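queue> pop job 88
queue> type: inverse folding (structure -> sequence)
queue> payload:
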């Protein structure tokens, strides 16, 4: 606990110091601090052999500072794992303090160049995406150089070259790429539409000599991987249409000990009119996981492209209990999302919001164990209705039917908020998961039987928030997963302190998931910006 206190005091000191020095010469300094620390406590109910660190403490910390002066900008980010939180041990072996990213950038009217660590995306990310997600422990930025040039509003071209970050170090591979966008609407002078044609090329080079020579010879691995994509984007009034196709040359993945070609197709149609909106998305892919290092272990950090789950992303505990993970070997499916809002013409505090969503994914190929049909990987049919009754009361009810590879569940959620005044509010959640599984065939996380969950949250805006919640398995485990805490916000700094028991399961962000083991402990989170 002493180290936890020192971290908190130190970060507050840095925050106050940085807040007082926002202007530097003719430029401006901005930045952010983020810290997540846990003191783990023994809990024989959720683990027999305690896997916690020796001193029961873990801490993930990030500080980022940027400087901007006219067309020039620069920045750095430092990460400290003291040590890494459980579930994130692949980020660092023991204690680690290192320079996570740095850059120098110049932007002109039509031209820009960046030297340092690059965060970028081509198209939807199927071919290339470098990004940071601290919740997932991801940072696959590209250390190198990126340049872009705009030929008026007609053509945009950009290129990059560098080596990708692999957790606290860099991969032994090199990645280069180019992206081209042509605005057909501007060329033909059609201002009422948006019509662009785009394309990308990405190459990954990795030596197959030395320790990898025998493996390369056995599986026909070549040092160069080539990927290309073509995209069309069209928009008119409330209609939007997008299409993308990606082709990938033969690639090797260490988990399969084989080389395969890959491809992906993505289609999306959206429409909105006044308070109604609709979106339909379809995607099919085969062997599209693209590791930055062919010979390293398969993990969420060893990718240079982005394959999110195209399903509804929930914030409610039980609805997000068993999320879908992309089957990168081969899948096809998509989702349809519908929203409609009805507003009272006489009272702005009265409205209805209706939302329905359907997503499903199947195996790309027919399977003999499903009578030569495509195997169902996922299905979610959900509806929710939000009602603002008056100035004080608001409610939401949600129903979701989920089928996760044969494990079925019916999820019911009720969410009610009462505002006492402009600053004080009280919110209640009540959730129930009715398992459709055969309880004589439990096989682990996906089939634990029924669950019930509840939450009470009291807010005193703009500074204080208090909550208690519990999630109880009334099927197989008969276990409470409780949590309680509070948060305090002052200007741009927020501190949250909580204590509870956390179930083993997936932590998901943007449809990408990381497995997290069970633990109990005291959690301190701090975020600040200046």
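queue> result:
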């Amino acid at each position: 606990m002493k180290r936890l206190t020192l971290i908190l005091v130190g970060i507050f000191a840095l925050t106050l110091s940085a807040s007082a020095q926002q202007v530097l010469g003719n430029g401006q300094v901005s930045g952010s601090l983020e810290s997540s620390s846990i003191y783990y406590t023994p809990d024989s109910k959720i683990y027999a052999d305690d896997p916690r660190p020796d001193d029961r403490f873990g801490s993930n910390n990030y500080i980022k500072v940027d400087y901007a002066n006219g067309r020039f900008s620069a920045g750095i980010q430092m990460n400290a794992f003291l040590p890494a939180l459980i579930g994130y041990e692949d980020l660092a072996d023991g204690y680690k303090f290192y320079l996570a990213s740095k850059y120098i950038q110049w932007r002109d009217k039509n031209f820009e160049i960046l030297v340092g660590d690059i965060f970028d995306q081509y198209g939807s990310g199927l071919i290339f995406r470098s990004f940071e997600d601290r919740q997932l422990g991801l940072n696959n930025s590209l250390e190198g150089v990126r340049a872009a040039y705009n030929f008026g509003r007609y053509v945009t071209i950009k290129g990059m070259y560098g080596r990708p970050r692999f957790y606290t170090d860099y991969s032994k591979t090199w990645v280069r790429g180019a992206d081209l966008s042509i605005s057909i609407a501007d060329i033909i002078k059609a201002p009422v539409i948006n019509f662009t044609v785009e394309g990308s090329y990405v190459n990954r080079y990795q030596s197959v000599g030395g320790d990898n020579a025998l493996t390369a010879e056995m599986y026909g691995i070549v040092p160069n991987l080539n990927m290309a994509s073509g995209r069309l984007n069209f928009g008119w009034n409330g209609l939007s249409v997008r299409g993308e196709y990606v082709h990938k040359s033969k690639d090797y993945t260490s988990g399969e000990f084989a080389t395969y070609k890959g491809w992906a197709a993505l289609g999306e149609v959206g429409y909105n009119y006044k308070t109604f909106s609709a979106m339909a998305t379809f995607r099919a892919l085969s062997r599209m996981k693209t590791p930055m290092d062919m010979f390293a272990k398969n993990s969420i950090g060893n990718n240079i492209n982005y394959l999110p789950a195209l399903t509804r992303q929930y914030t409610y505990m039980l609805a997000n209990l068993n999320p879908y993970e992309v089957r990168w070997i081969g899948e096809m499916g998509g989702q349809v999302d519908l929203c409609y809002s009805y507003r009272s013409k006489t009272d702005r505090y009265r409205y209805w919001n209706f939302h329905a969503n359907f997503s499903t994914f199947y195996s790309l190929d027919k399977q003999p164990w499903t009578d030569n049909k495509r195997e169902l990987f996922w299905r979610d049919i959900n509806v929710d209705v939000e009602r603002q009754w008056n100035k004080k009361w608001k409610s939401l009810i949600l129903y979701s039917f989920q089928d996760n590879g044969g494990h079925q569940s019916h999820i019911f959620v009720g969410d009610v908020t009462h505002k006492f005044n402009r600053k004080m509010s009280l919110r209640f959640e009540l959730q129930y998961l009715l398992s459709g599984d055969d309880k004589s065939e439990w096989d682990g996380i996906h089939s634990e039987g029924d669950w019930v969950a509840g939450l009470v949250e009291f807010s005193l805006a703009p500074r204080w928030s208090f909550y208690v919640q519990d999630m109880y398995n009334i099927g197989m485990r008969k276990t409470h997963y409780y949590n309680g805490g509070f948060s305090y916000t002052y200007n741009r700094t927020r501190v949250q302190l909580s204590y509870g028991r956390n179930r083993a399961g997936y932590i998901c962000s943007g449809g990408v998931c990381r497995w997290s083991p069970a633990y109990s402990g005291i959690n301190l989170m701090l975020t600040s910006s200046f």
